[in-house]
Specification:
It contains 23 helices and six strands. The chain is mainly alpha-helical. Strands 2-4-3-6-1-5 form a six-stranded mixed sheet. Helix 2 packs across helix 9 and helix 4 packs parallel to helix 13.
Length: 647
């Protein structure tokens, strides 16, 4: 705990020294940015999203609904909504910055999750789903002990809330010049806007707003690329893609940066910071992403979403978030003076968009940036609230609270999270660019948790004393590295040490090394936990997870889905009753798990419920449900339902 306080003292010291920078950033340009039409479009977009998200609050009846969406949604809905979570507003600004400075090599930081994806799909995802783990800290308690959970809670909350602060800063950086409002006032207004629909809707609001915003993000990003190419074609001798390609220098066309130079963007530093620490942090530690997959109707649907996102969405997203920088570099090469020479790094996206788009279109693309911010921030806020409720409020509360009371507390907690995030914004604004702020944040706060969860899942011998030592001892050595960069030098691969800024990214390698070393050494000198305690919590129990989840042997027989009408019965049990013939078609037995949903596939599972097969009856084409099922599934009278056996 003392080490965490030291970290916060360091952050607050930086906050005090840099708050004045909020009003001293260089302007994007000395000309007006956007028109009244653009401002109207942006404001209307905010209003539309707030109303849309608040509407879906009607489906958040319990904390399970609020945080996990009732575990009901189809893979395609999860997959598209992940786009908006992964492509944050900081993605547009930070990747545009590096794309403008270094060209196509900016994409190398965005397409480096693939080698961890199988470990997530077949290791981490089934563990958290089948073991009903509600948060990252909860896993640490069940795998280790309550002290590990306490430390993990602190580290995870700092990680999540800091990420929210970066999102707020990013969008405010784009909007405050457009509306002529001070930066911090813009940050506060953004926080209020995201609060309105998050306060009532929870995870269901997050998923459905992110579904719409995911499409908007991809379309707007590709539209910007098209407009940029069209602009270059009108202003240069070339046409089409040649107008873009021929105005990049050979070095700007390279897919990878130089191995160890320059200090602020090199292959080896980005690999360890983004490819290792960042990827493990995103896939294994991002509570918001975990909750998105926990909202899937099944593990198989979660896996489909991961595969589709990795193979299809990520390559498209890499183009979407970087192309403003590529276009800006091509414009600068072909038309010197079009963009300011002294343009601030964070201003590249807005400046390029302002040049290549017309009034109205500019407002739409900036609205897409708003979509990116709101989608990522809503996920992170909901996740932070889940951690506070599940890992602080419930364990420490002396009396048992009803689910309604917990839901009320969760909604107000999300407001507190945003207040803290707003306070942290000035610290991140002190970095040269949002890219470097995000890189430092990832490499500093991810390693202890990344090492802990990774060794916990994939190394059965990893012990409870070792995880405590990783959190405490590893954090201490990381802090030493912040104050004494010479400790990082042996890991630097020849990267130049900047006296005033230290090592931008390679510090991630040092941090991972010291945390892993402490954990491994302590493990080898301590007694491992019993197999009984570890049941279902490591990759070695993967074949048993379905049985643990169901409480009996799963029914793996492949049956068909059936469409049925429904009738209400008085029944307090969590069972649904089908006819003998319908159960035969589904190859289901009493006690098996089932999933039932509105037969309209395009709802993606919004109106659905999980249950258990009860005693069969003789009325074919009809399922008997109780009031609880009806309330949870929001089934409409007269509409068909589609049911299928799960296990």
């Amino acid at each position: 705990m003392a080490l965490v306080i030291i970290v916060w003292i360091f952050l607050l010291d930086e906050f005090t020294c840099t708050i004045y920078l909020l009003s001293d950033r260089k302007s994007v340009m000395d000309i007006a940015i956007g028109t009244s039409l653009d401002r109207i479009i942006i404001i209307c977009y905010f209003a539309l999203v707030m109303g849309f998200g608040a509407y879906f609050g009607r489906y958040s009846k319990t904390t399970t609904d609020y945080f996990f969406g009732g575990r009901r949604f189809a893979w395609w809905l999860i997959s598209i909504s992940i786009v908006a979570t992964g492509v944050g507003s900081h993605s547009f600004l930070k990747y545009s910055t590096k794309a403008y400075q270094y060209g196509l090599s900016s994409t190398m930081t965005y397409m480096n999750d693939w080698f961890f994806v199988p470990l997530f799909m077949f290791g981490w995802l089934p563990i958290i789903y089948y073991m009903r783990i509600k948060s990252i800290p909860e896993y640490f308690e069940r795998r280790f002990n309550s002290k590990a959970r306490y430390l993990a809670t602190i580290l995870t909350l700092i990680f999540m809330i800091g990420y929210i602060a970066i999102q707020f800063l990013t969008l405010a950086t784009a909007l405050y010049k457009i509306f002529g409002i001070p930066l911090m006032a813009t940050v506060v207004l953004i926080a209020i806007a995201t609060t309105i629909y998050m306060h009532f809707g929870g995870q269901t609001s997050v998923i459905f707003t992110d579904l719409i915003q995911g499409f908007i993000l991809i379309f707007a990003g590709m539209l910007l690329f098209y407009l940029g190419i069209q602009f270059l074609g009108d202003q240069t001798p070339y046409t089409g893609l040649r107008a873009f390609w021929m105005n990049l220098s050979p070095i700007e066309k390279l897919p990878l940066a130089h191995f160890n130079r320059p200090p602020d963007f090199n292959f080896v530093g980005i690999f360890w910071q983004d490819g290792i620490a960042g990827s493990v942090g995103f896939l294994f530690l991002n509570q918001g992403l975990i909750m998105r997959f926990m909202a899937a109707r099944s593990v198989n649907d979660g896996r489909k979403a991961v595969a589709f996102n990795t193979l299809v969405i990520l390559p498209i997203s890499a183009i979407v978030v970087s192309n403003a920088g590529w276009i800006g570099r091509a414009i600068t090469n072909a038309l010197p003076g079009t963009l300011p020479v002294d343009m601030a790094a964070n201003d590249v996206f807005v400046a390029v968009t302002n040049i290549v788009s017309s009034p109205g279109v500019f407002g739409f693309i900036i609205a897409a940036l708003c979509a990116a911010l709101m989608s990522t921030a809503d996920t992170l806020v909901n996740a932070s609230s889940a951690i506070i409720v599940n890992d602080i409020y419930k364990p420490l509360s002396k009396k048992k609270h009803s689910d309604t009371e917990q839901l009320h507390f969760a909604r107000w907690t999300s407001l507190g999270v945003k207040v803290i995030a707003v306070i942290m914004v000035p610290f991140f604004n002190s970095f040269d660019s949002i890219y470097e702020a995000n890189g430092w944040f990832h490499s500093t706060f991810t390693p202890p948790l990344a090492v802990g969860v990774f060794l916990g899942i994939f190394w059965k011998r990893f012990t409870t004393p070792a995880i405590i030592a990783t959190f405490v001892g590893g954090s201490f050595l990381m802090i030493l590295g912040q104050f004494y960069p010479e400790l990082i030098s042996p890991f630097a691969h020849g990267i130049e040490l900047r006296p005033d800024k230290g090592y931008s990214y390679i510090g991630a390698l040092y941090n991972i090394f010291v945390c892993a070393s402490v954990g491994i050494i302590v493990t080898l000198f301590t007694k491992p936990d019993s197999d009984k305690k570890l049941k279902g919590l490591t990759i070695f129990d993967a074949p048993k997870l379905k049985e643990i989840y169901k409480g009996s042997q799963p029914n793996e027989a492949l049956g068909k889905s059936v469409k049925v009408g429904w009738k209400m019965i008085e029944n307090d049990q969590d069972t649904m009753q089908f006819s003998k013939n319908d159960m035969k078609k589904m190859k289901a037995n009493p006690g098996d798990f089932l999933y039932i949903q509105d037969a309209r596939w395009w709802l993606g599972g919004l109106k659905s419920a999980h249950s258990v097969y009860g005693k069969p009856h003789n009325e074919d084409g009809v399922v008997y449900i109780n009031a609880s099922h009806l309330d949870h599934g929001q089934f409409l009278e007269g509409l068909q339902l589609k049911a299928e056996k799960e296990m």
